[in-house]
Amino acid sequence: MAGSISAYWERMDNSMPIPEEQLATWSHQGSVQQSSATYQTIRTALMDPNAAYADKDSKVFLQGSYGNDTNIYAESDVDVVIYLDSIWRRDLSALPPEQQTAYSQAHDNATYTFDEFKRGVVNQLYAAFGTADVTSGNKSIKIKSNGSRRSADVVACYQYRRYIRFINISNQEYITGVIFPSVLSGEIINYPELHSDNCTVKHQATSGWFKPMVRIMKNMRSLLVDDSTIAKDTAPSYNIEGMLWNVPNEKFGGNYGDTFYNCINWLVQTDRSKLRCANEQYRLLGESNVQWPFAKCDMFLNAVVKLWEEW
User: Which domain holds residue 241?
Assistant: First the structure.
């Protein structure tokens, strides 16, 4: 699905591109010191040995732009995950009946629930930062900025397993993700660690060009949002990373202008219905709660093409 963008893009061959100096400025990573300090403060609060869930198997990690080193100066929120590992939801649909039976015989139902865990997380954040600065939202628990602390989104989630094989406990294979409820979108299943790992591999495979190009695209998005050309939710950072992750490695390199042109030219001419999320578990474009709607992707690509052409 190349959509209607390609014909528009072909008219750009003789146009003046955005100057290399501007692209280089946009490629720079935003401040990390304050965000790192914010993360450490929140992590310390969540891992308090007196927390209600302290005896459960959980871990805390960064996700999103700061976690993937694709943050830009315009971004302020720090995305933190607290992940409960001791219970899980499973997908056995790929297993033959005898392996599904073997799984059921090997596992009992959990007695500790995710609702208990999330209540403990919310209460822990209330105790650490005060009820006035902590709000439980649609997908995350939001912490307001205060002094040198940046604003943050804390996602409480638990383990998700998509099984590939189950013979017995010592002979099994599954892909690990996370699952969490949202008020508006239902349950969300995603794979943040796979996403981050694959983006790092892509960055290395492109000799360090991938993440700067993500930051360039995100700065272009910020400019387009500020100009009211696109809405704030048109192009989430996660989807920009996923989109560029699909671009062949040989399209990256030389200079920022050439890389931008080659990446966008490939994207507007390829069949975008076949693009994958960087975690490799879903199609990037679609209508599920973990996909990027086709219309929003096209809107963003049209907007960056026009920005380039009319700079």
Answer: 1-30+191-311
Q: At 45, which amino acid appears?
A: A
**Residues 161, 17 share a domain:** no
DSSP assigned state of 209: -
Same domain, 237 and 308: yes
Q: Which residue has the higher pLDDT, 106 or 73?
A: 106
In whole angstroms, what is the distance from residue 176 CA to residue 282 CA? 14
User: Domains in the chain: how many in total?
Assistant: 2
Q: Which of 271, 279, 189 lies closest to 239 in space, CA to CA?
A: 279
pLDDT at residue 10 above 80? no
pLDDT 10s digits, 212-271 = 999 999 999 999 999 999 999 999 999 999 999 999 999 999 999 999 999 999 999 999
**Is 182's pLDDT higher than 90?**
no
- Distance between CA 288 and CA 30 in Å, rounded? 31
Contact indicator for 198, 245 with CB cutoff of 8 Å: yes
- CB atoms inside a 10 Å sphere around CB 305: 20
Read off the pLDDT of residues 87-102 as tens digits, 9 standing for 90 and up.
999 999 999 999 999 9
Q: How far apart are CA 210 and CA 159, in angstroms?
A: 29
**Strand, coil or helix: 110:** coil
Q: Are residues 154 and 205 in the same domain?
A: no
Q: How far apart are CA 240 and CA 47, in angstroms?
A: 32
154 shares its domain with 23:
no
Q: 3-state class of 304 per DSSP?
A: helix
CA 281 to chain centre: 13
83 shares its domain with 23: no
- φ, ψ for residue 38 (rounded to 5)? -65, -45
